[in-house]
Amino acid sequence: MALCFLKLGNPEGVLHHCNKMLADEKYPLEEKLRVKVLYRRAWAWCEVNEFEKCQSDLEGVFQLEKGNVEALKLRGVLEGRIKENNRHMSTRLKNLFKS
Asked: How many angstroms separate the first and last alpha carbons of the chain?
């Protein structure tokens, strides 16, 4: 279900379903599925500008699967968004303190 929300560009739906899957202690996820769920949740966190949570989930992916190509790509996207966000915030702060 999370993959459907991912393809539809609905990060809130992705977060909801991934959180449910990761929280289910009665039926713990197999390692490969856990990697997929963490990756999808990381993508969703990135989409809603929750960069620290995205980074945390990516670290979880890399702990389970060091060379995960998709996670490496997402890390590049994340780094770009963080830089963009920092530039945007810097400009806003400069404008705030202008006379």
From this structure: 51
Torsion, CA 74, CA 80, CA 85, CA 90, rounded to 10: 160
CB 88 within 8 A of CB 62: no
C-alpha angle 17-20-26 in degrees, rounded to nearest 5: 140
- In what helix (H) or strand (E) does residue 86 lie, and over which residues does it extend? helix 69-96
pTM over 0.90: no
Quote the mean pLDDT of the chain: 92
CB 97 within 8 A of CB 75: no
Q: What is the C-alpha separation between 7 and 18, in angstroms, rounded?
A: 14
